[in-house]
Write a structure and sequence with these properties.
Length: 537
């Protein structure tokens, strides 16, 4: 066997100075390079607790207090897994109940009333949108894309702060760093006027496109004379501004949903600066500048801009308990007219008046007894169950029923008041004057019943009305008593009898006269003849 030749190689220190090739290395514990890059970016940021996060979004005194109804104060809605929706009030008690064992969702919008429809939205405190990180180009590109929101690199390699800034106030993610949400918190809430819904939705979609556009890679093509993207980031489908998102501190995936502080608060103008002009959302469509408004409306500028006071008339939902009482009372008066749809109509009136479910069940049972005389038992039970389901599942939808819908559904016959071309304000003013006039009339009549020997001057003095008013109603009373044709002795009403005309030229007319003798005391009086339209009997 030949001897093995051993060659000794001296170690060369120069080999250590050669850089190793750049390779994508996925560390254990991460399923993708996006999650690894997001973790490396957020590890330098401050992790906040659920109480700190929601107190920053909803400052102290912003929401309504529990069990206290205050005009201009509203509450949020939280949906915890396996529970009914709950109110989020100023104490944030319902939010802090969330644990990593159960999932929960809510939006940063305060609502009025008990529902969560866009019509009941009043105040927007933050915009939350879902973000998709760039695909696996390299293990550092996701982290580099997030840092590009804070600074911009010029052609010389120098970093400059991005203006306007686009970094969100908070970044929300799950324990595996696979899902990412951007939260832009407003310094002052944005009022959710109805005309603002479409504008805010446009701003929301444009802001999402702007964020993902930063992560695109492209070059200028001299031949095509345009900017060609070699890599275009996948953009998520647009969501609604009323969409609910996971609650910080609740269960998401296999762990707790967390929040990291990454930036400052925004106002609506700062977000408008990030999107094109056609997608900007302005509260008021006016060309007047703030300086012009300050000169022209100095009181308004001091009250709303300088002192930052809320408007005096804040939108608030008024319950309609009287409508429920009226419908339940009228349904029993018109037993022959109501239909099976009265069950659903009664549930709609109960939703409008915030009637307790136990009271509604008792009244539906009474209505069931009334309808059993005209309809089959099976049909009544079907409509009764449907009314209960509508009230339990979605009472906010029942509150959208108009008065005409309730009358049409139930079959009730109701005649509305004719305004005679007047507006609602003018009509209500006329009704108020009639009611006041009627109350003065009743007061004058009752005073003379208690004081038969009193004078008109004494009545006017004691009631605090004018002498002219007392004289008018006394004349009306005397005229009404004369029409009764009472017997001057016993006060018995005299009976009218229709007679034939006494002259041939008046054969088209018939007359009625008062009997000459009183039917009670047989007192003989002089009769009077009156022209009547009906034929003689």
């Amino acid at each position: 066997m030949e001897d093995e030749i051993l060659i000794e190689v001296e170690e060369d220190d120069e080999l250590d100075s050669i850089p190793a090739p750049l390779t994508n290395v996925l560390r254990p514990g991460f399923e993708s390079y996006q999650a690894q890059g997001l973790h490396d970016y957020l590890i330098e940021r401050k992790k906040v607790s659920p109480e700190e996060f929601y107190r920053d979004v909803f400052p102290a005194g912003a929401l309504a207090d529990a069990k206290v109804q205050e005009q201009g104060k509203f509450a949020c809605r939280i949906y915890r897994e396996g529970e009914y929706p709950q109110y989020v009030n100023n104490d944030l008690k319902e939010v802090l109940k969330c644990t990593p064992e159960h999932a929960a969702q809510m939006s940063c919008i305060a609502y009025a009333g008990r529902g969560e429809s866009p019509k009941q939205a009043c105040e927007l405190y933050a915009l939350i949108l879902r973000v998709l990180l760039p695909e696996e180009i390299s293990y550092k590109y996701a982290e580099y894309s997030l840092r590009r929101m804070e600074s911009v690199v010029d052609r010389y390699g120098n970093y400059h702060p991005r203006t306007p800034r686009i970094c969100p106030t908070y970044m929300l993610t799950d324990p595996s760093y696979e899902t990412l949400y951007f939260c832009y918190v407003f310094r002052d809430f944005v009022p959710m006027y109805h005309h603002m819904h479409i504008k805010l939705q446009r701003l929301y979609d444009a802001l999402s496109r702007t964020i993902h556009h930063l992560w695109d890679i492209g070059v200028w093509d001299d031949l095509q004379k345009k900017f060609v993207y070699k890599y275009e980031c996948i953009k998520p489908l647009p969501e609604s501004i009323f969409h609910r998102y996971p609650v910080v501190g609740s269960k998401y995936g296999k762990g707790e949903f967390t929040a990291y502080k990454t930036g400052q608060k925004y106002d609506l103008n700062a977000l408008n600066a990030l999107v094109p002009k056609t997608y900007q959302a302005n509260l008021y469509d006016t060309k007047m500048t703030m300086e012009e408004a300050k000169e022209q409306f100095s009181d308004w500028h001091t009250r709303r801009v300088v002192e930052k006071r809320k408007p005096s008339k804040s939108p608030i939902y008024k319950d309609k308990t009287l409508l429920y009482k009226w419908f339940f009372k009228t349904a029993f008066k018109q037993k022959g007219n109501i239909t099976l749809g009265a069950m659903e109509a009664l549930a709609a009136c109960a939703a409008k008046g915030f009637i307790e479910p136990d009271v509604l069940d008792e009244d539906l049972a009474d209505l069931h007894t009334t309808l059993s005389a005209r309809f089959s038992e099976d049909d009544i039970i079907v409509h009764e169950q449907r009314a209960k389901e509508l009230y339990d599942i979605d009472p906010s939808a029942l509150r959208h029923w108009t008065f005409d819908d309730i009358v049409e559904q139930s079959g009730l016959q109701h005649k509305r008041y004719d305004r005679k071309g007047n507006t609602q304000t003018q009509h209500m003013k006329i009704l108020q004057e009639k009611n006041e006039e009627k109350s003065r009339k009743d007061a004058v009549f009752s005073w003379f019943e208690d004081n038969p020997d009193g004078t008109q001057a004494q009545c006017a003095r004691e009631l605090g009305v004018s002498r002219k008013t007392v004289s008018k109603w006394i004349a009306v009373k005397e005229k009404a008593e004369k029409r009764k044709n009472l017997c001057p002795h016993c006060g018995t009403p005299m009976v009218k009898t229709k007679i034939e005309p006494y002259f041939w030229a008046l054969k088209a007319k018939f007359y009625s006269r008062i009997d000459k003798d009183c039917p009670n005391c047989q007192h003989h009086i002089k009769g009077k003849a009156y022209v009547c339209k009906g034929p003689a009997r």
